[in-house]
UniProtKB/TrEMBL annotation:
GO terms assigned for molecular function: CoA-transferase activity
Keyword Transmembrane helix: no
Keyword line: Transferase
Record-given protein name: CoA transferase
InterPro entries for the chain: CoA-transferase_III_domain, CoA-Trfase_fam_III, CoA-Trfase_III_dom3_sf, CoA-Trfase_III_dom_1_sf
Organism: Nitrospirillum viridazoti CBAmc
A Pfam entry, by short name: CoA_transf_3
Gene3D superfamilies: Crotonobetainyl-coa:carnitine coa-transferase, domain 1, formyl-coa transferase, domain 3
Record has Transferase as a keyword: yes
Coiled-coil residue windows: none
């Protein structure tokens, strides 16, 4: 088996809920040894976010819920009470041997426990210490708490998501998944990889990384934000309509709906042929993409009437034959039954002690020389406490028993 890219990297993951854990999971997928620290008794906050839970062998729900399972595969779970002096000492000793420390406590919280960057750097000068917070380490909002939905609103994402005000159901809309957390997690893992490369390949040092969910979400607005920065124009909600090649939107059919984008003039001409309306290719309001963008509502109305006349299957077959980017509006059961997703293996087996048939999402990265093949189930609370503290810190059975009795682990 090939050695994974991060096989010699050790990560101490003090993060909770989603953004930080997703970053730790990405590093673990790439081969890093990730030790996840959780509170004794309760664990990561996400463990109590509610159903659905894994069903155990007895047919009853367990405490392992889907939210936690989504962000913690390939890790080891160690329970340590960082509010007590002995727990803090354990964390410092583990951090002294780590390449990366990842945390998402509120600004200043870990300093109270002697677990902040300066304290850890004194023990481990080469450490990459990444702090993930809602608003960053500085600024007027630095100490404010926040969650994904707050940042979806505050970043401007909700202002450009949803139907226009004048349409039924119009108004700002939250994206379904916790997209601020997901995007932040990807940024965090990217930043950590860059810092490791700087330290190990470019003669750099350890360093502190400050990542804020609000920053990440504003950056994720990309071309929407650039529209405003370039022109002063505030982008508006357009429902499912795109912002580049037109038409680009959801079109209802007689038995469902499809999504398509004609990204340039050539594709638009093919689209007109596919729906047997060549006259629309030469229409004075639509014959260039600039005109189609300016007249997007009239254009959409023309094609809306066309697509309602036949089924999803009919139109997708027709559009594919003419090379038009298009697809169905799938529910998740349809996604995982889709032949492309089955071929790509986007659901993989990760046998769990309580659910031998557990499946998790496959990492979407494909490496030719170092493929990601290990999918260990997300750990149960404290599953690796004894093994990690024995192997890493030399604790014997009596010490472990005493620390457990005292509530330290």
């Amino acid at each position: 088996m090939a050695i994974l890219p991060l096989s010699n990297v050790r990560v101490l993951d003090l993060s909770r809920v989603l953004a930080g854990p997703l970053a730790g999971q990405m590093l673990a997928d790439l081969g890093a040894d990730v030790i996840k620290v959780e509170r004794p008794g309760t664990g990561d906050d996400s463990r109590v976010f509610g159903a659905p839970y894994l069903t155990g062998p007895d047919g009853h729900p367990t405490r392992e819920n889907a939210f936690y399972l989504s962000a913690n595969r390939n890790k080891k779970s160690v329970t340590v009470n960082i509010a007590c002096a002995q727990g803090q000492d354990i964390i410092r000793r583990l951090a002294a041997k780590a390449d990366v420390v990842l945390e998402n406590y509120k600004v200043g919280d870990l300093k109270r426990y002697g677990l902040d960057y300066d304290a850890i750097r004194a023990l481990n000068p080469g450490v990459i210490y990444c702090s993930v917070t809602g608003y960053g380490q500085s600024g007027p909002y630095a100490k404010k708490p926040g969650y994904d939905a707050v940042f979806q609103g505050q970043s401007g994402l909700m202002s450009v998501t949803g139907l226009p005000d004048h349409k039924p159901g119009g108004g700002p809309m939250k994206v379904g998944p916790s997209i601020a957390d997901v995007i932040t997690g990807l940024n965090v893992s990217n930043a950590i990889l860059a810092a490791l490369y700087s330290r190990d390949a470019n003669g750099g040092t350890g360093q502190f990384i400050d990542v804020a969910l609000l920053d990440c979400m504003v950056a994720a607005l990309s071309h929407y934000a650039q529209i405003y920065l370039t022109s002063g124009e505030v982008p508006v909600r357009r429902g499912t309509q795109g912002n580049g090649g037109m038409p680009s939107t959801l079109f209802p059919c007689s038995d469902g709906a499809i999504m398509l984008t004609a990204g340039n003039d050539v594709q638009y001409g093919r689209l007109c042929d596919a729906v047997e309306r060549p006259d629309l290719a030469a229409h004075p309001l639509f014959h260039t993409n600039i005109l189609r963008v300016e007249n997007r509502d009239a254009l959409t109305a023309e094609f809306d009437a066309i697509f309602r006349r036949n089924t999803v299957a009919h139109w997708l077959e027709r559009l594919e034959a003419f090379g038009i980017p298009s697809g169905p509006i799938n529910t998740l059961d349809q996604v995982f039954a889709d032949p492309q997703m089955r071929h790509r293996g986007m659901a993989v087996a990760a046998p769990h002690p309580l659910a031998p048939d557990l499946q998790v999402l496959r990492n979407p990265l494909h490496f030719s020389a170092t493929p990601i093949t290990r999918y260990d189930a997300p750990p149960m609370l404290g599953q690796h406490t004894d093994a990690v503290l024995a192997d890493e810190l030399g604790f014997d059975a009596d010490t472990l028993a005493r620390l457990r009795a005292e509530g330290v682990i």
